[in-house]
Each structure stands twice: as structure tokens, then as C-alpha cells.
Design a protein that fits this description.
Layout (H helix, E strand, L loop, with lengths): L6 H7 E5 L1 E3 L5 E4 L11 H11 L4 E4 L4 E6 L2 E4 L6 H11 L1 H31 L23
Parallel strand pairs: 3-4
Antiparallel strand pairs: 1-5, 2-3, 5-6
């Protein structure tokens, strides 16, 4: 298995983009574009300098943002060499049958809960007193108009 997650994984899990974000592994990813967002005074220049000094720790992109997934509240950056996204994808693939069964059971439980809620609401509506209102079309006019008779 590759140390990179598939595009299908990223299409499913990407939730945000940022001009600068730290991946779960501790690497800082950032856009090299000055007009990509709001930078603090000297922030981009500092990141560019750090990228020169520690290219494995500070990773710049020419895109206007860094795509990020959040799994268990942990940010994972697109293209990060750490392979964290690939590890999560491998877990999903390796446990596909179990995950499918779990999601089926979860879906069925939610359907039953929704059915019970709908049934309860229907019983509440059924117990309300019903009033039938009959409108007399001959009386439906503005003041000063002739009745529609």
C-alpha cells in the first residue's frame, strides 16, 4: 500500500482548507501565495525561511490553501509525507465488511427511531380536536366591494 491516501479518500474526508495548518504529525503546511489570505506581518516570510532551513518540517504549496481532513478531531494535511491519511484509509479498506455491517445496523436503528418518532407525532396529531372551517365566498371581499354572489 502506498504511503499516500487515494483521491477517493480525500474527496470523502476533506473538510477545510487553510493558508497555514499543522498536520497531526507536527509538520506545518502553508500556501506560498501572499494573496492567499490574511497573513500577520512577516508570517509568510518567516514560513518561507523555515521551509528553506527545515524542508521536511515546513512544507509550502503553490496552491492558495492546504486541504485538510479531520479524523477524530486531528487535522491531516493533503500531500503530507507522514502517511497518516493512508493509515486511516488502510484501516477502512482492511475492515470494510465490518464497517459496512456496522453502518447497516446503525442505519436500521436510526430508521426505527425515526419511525417511532413519526408514529408518536401521528398519535399526537390524531388526538387534537379538529375544527372544520367553512368559508362563505359571498362574504370574502374587501370593505366597499360588492359581494361575489
Amino acid at each position: 500500500m502506498s504511503d499516500k491516501a487515494s483521491e477517493m479518500f480525500w474527496d470523502s474526508f476533506t473538510i477545510a482548507g487553510s493558508i497555514c495548518i499543522e498536520c497531526a504529525c507536527g509538520r506545518t503546511h502553508f500556501s506560498r501565495q501572499e494573496d492567499a489570505g490574511t497573513w500577520e506581518e512577516g508570517e509568510l516570510e518567516g514560513l518561507l525561511q523555515k521551509e528553506q532551513e527545515k524542508p521536511d518540517r515546513y512544507i509550502g504549496t503553490d496552491d492558495d490553501s492546504v486541504a485538510t481532513a479531520s479524523i477524530q478531531g486531528v487535522p491531516i494535511c493533503y500531500g503530507c509525507p507522514c502517511g497518516t491519511a493512508a493509515k486511516y484509509e488502510r484501516f477502512i479498506i482492511d475492515n470494510e465488511s465490518e464497517i459496512i455491517e456496522y453502518l447497516k445496523a446503525k442505519s436500521e436503528a436510526k430508521r426505527k427511531e425515526a419511525d417511532a418518532t413519526a408514529s408518536h407525532l401521528a398519535s399526537l396529531v390524531g388526538s387534537l380536536p379538529h375544527r372544520r372551517t367553512v368559508l362563505d365566498a359571498t362574504k370574502m371581499c374587501r370593505p366597499g366591494d360588492e359581494p361575489l354572489a
